[in-house]
Amino acid sequence: MPGKVVGKSLNLGYPGTVSRSADAIITARLVRDTDKEPISFGDAVVLNGDNSYSKFGEDGTADAFVGVAVREVKQSTDYFSEQVSYKPGQPCDVLERGSITVLCNAGTPTAGGAVYLRITANASIPTGVVGGFEAAADGANTIKLPGVKWKTGKLDTNKVAEITILSRNNP
After folding, report:
1. I need a surface site. Which of 94, 97, 103, 165 has the fewest CB within 10 A?
2. What is the per-residue pLDDT across 61-111, written as a single tens digit (0 to 9) for each?
3. CA 110 → CA 10, 96, 149, distances in Å?
4. Known InterPro entries for this protein (predicted)?
5. Is residue 11 part of a domain?
6. Could you give the number of structural domains in the chain?
7. Looking at residue 100, what is its pLDDT?
């Protein structure tokens, strides 16, 4: 009978899971209904001028960053479809201050280290995803998020790590 071995530590969870709730500020707004892409749990999110959210993309800036999409266990009558995102026009919960788990696509996080978001693809970093969190700067291809730090520096086997948003960037 095949078995699995428990490693030295447990996984950190799923992207978008609020990891420490004592200081969490979560705000709900609609995903802009004209957006083409849904906002996946754990994605970086921007606040639009019409009071809606969108997924952080190539035109994103540190000033536009508002927080991280919170993982929500959604109930479904269709058991074959995955509910892993907020679709355009749906309400979306975003953590604006507090700690949350995200995918770290490149680099190795350090406790209290800077958090970067990729704004341009770079062929030399194949794991780098536009709008994704990273632990290492990549010149003009990434931007540093002020007021956001890696919490513990731990990175599990699924590339999940914990960040802390120290202060709200947008209302």
Report:
1. 97
2. 999 999 999 998 766 666 556 678 999 999 999 999 999 999 999 999 999
3. 18, 22, 9
4. Gp53-like
5. no
6. 1
7. 96
Cβ proximity of 141 and 118 under 8 Å: yes
Q: Residue 1 falls within a domain, yes or no?
A: no
**pLDDT tens across 137-170, in order?**
999 999 999 999 999 989 998 999 999 999 998 8
pTM confidence score: 0.88
Return d(Cα 119, Cα 77) in angstroms, integer: 37
% of the chain at pLDDT higher than 70: 89
In a domain, 89, yes or no: yes
Range of the domain at 155: 18-165
CATH number of the domain that residue 119 is part of: 2.40.300
Look up residue 4 and give its two tokens.
């699995």
